[in-house]
Design goal:
Blueprint: H1 16-27, E1 34-38, H2 45-57, H3 61-64, H4 72-79, E2 85-88, H5 99-110, E3 119-123, H6 131-142, E4 148-154, H7 162-165, E5 169-172, H8 178-187, H9 193-199, H10 204-212, H11 215-230, H12 236-246, H13 249-269, H14 277-295, H15 303-325
Parallel strand pairs: 1-4, 1-5, 2-3, 3-4
The chain binds zinc ion.
């Protein structure tokens, strides 16, 4: 029933529990009038809200708990012309949702529905409502017109006034488990899924966006450079410069760790290659340096400075191990 892509059929695979909760409420007459769908960016909240709104508006929702995609109302939703479906987001270059937008929304919601009782509105980026806009929405949240369902979508729930939050039922959308995201990205034909996911802080949709632009090539380049650095063929400063240009400190350290594991695994698995005790020790030391640095609170320091420090430590360890093991 649930498809890979959200839309008429349903949500993303990692949203099945939340989907079931909401559709069960709707089919058993326990639908709340307002939901706050919140969680980190890049996890598919927008797609989820649209899929749920679409399902609620479908003529056959009561039978199938999903949007059929074929009835007249589904077709109107798909065409963006359903009169009882309203979406609010930023207009042009604005980075907030204005009180005028909210006023227009509440006015429309107060009108009689065109088809049946149900009207659905999504407020995207709800945490960017101006204080006046949030205030303007309160009355509708307190006394919703019959049949109205409001879906507020927010990356940062805490940025919404408590008065708004307390009147919505919360739907949390945490980051999906890493393995599930990797599997989904790989099914979508995306190579290097682990790396991209690490760059995207674990958010699968953000990782897919990265895969679609030039970042992949750049990240693969950095991965190559890291490999060379470990072998002593790239110097500390250029390596740190290249890393800081692309990534924040934490992302950078976690990618180095991830790549180190891949390299170590590759080295162990090469058929016929003896497991080199010095190399194993070197990888162990590098891993320890990276892990230690990740534990430090270096948020206020410049990425390049932090990475330079880490790489310099690795260089010292490499020299020491080399000196100890050379005949
Ligand atoms: Zn339908």
């Amino acid at each position: 029933m649930l498809s890979e892509e959200p839309g008429a059929a349903g949500p993303y695979p990692w949203q099945n529990a939340q989907w079931r909760l909401l559709t069960d409420s709707a089919t058993t007459g326990r639908l709340h009038h307002a939901y706050l769908i919140s969680g980190p960016a890049g996890t598919g909240k927008t797609g989820f809200a649209r899929a749920f709104a679409h399902a609620l508006l479908c003529e056959r929702f009561a039978q199938s708990a999903t949007a059929c995609g074929e009835c007249a109302r589904c077709k109107l939703v798909t065409a963006g012309t359903h009169p009882d479906f309203i979406e609010l987001s930023w207009i042009d270059k604005a980075t907030t949702i204005s009180v005028d937008q909210v006023r227009s929304l509440t006015t429309k919601l107060a009108l009689t529905a065109t088809f049946d009782q149900r009207r659905v509105a999504i407020v995207h980026r709800a945490n960017s409502m101006s204080p006046a806009a949030a205030n303007g929405l309160l009355k509708t949240l307190e006394e919703p017109p019959p049949g109205c369902v409001l879906l507020l979508v927010a990356d940062r729930e805490a940025a919404l006034p408590i008065t708004v939050r307390s009147r919505c039922q919360r739907v949390l959308m945490p980051l999906p488990p890493r393995a599930e995201s990797v599997a989904w990205l790989e099914t979508a034909g995306i190579e290097n899924a682990e790396t991209l996911l690490a760059c995207a802080h674990g958010a699968p949709l953000a990782a897919r966006v990265l895969a679609a632009d030039d970042s992949v090539g750049n990240i693969e380049n950095l991965q190559r450079q890291w490999r060379e650095f470990l072998l002593g063929r790239v110097e500390v400063v250029p390596m740190a410069e290249a890393s800081a240009k692309m990534l924040a400190t934490r992302e950078c350290l976690s990618l180095f760790s991830l790549w180190l594991i891949e390299i170590a695994r590759g080295a162990e698995c090469t058929p016929g290659a003896p497991v080199n005790r010095a190399r194993r020790r070197y990888f162990g030391e590098v891993s320890r340096i990276l892990a230690h640095s990740m534990k430090l609170d270096n948020a206020s320091l410049k990425t390049q400075a932090v990475i330079e420090g880490v790489l310099a430590d690795i260089k010292i360890i490499r020299a020491r191990i080399r000196a100890e093991t050379s005949p």
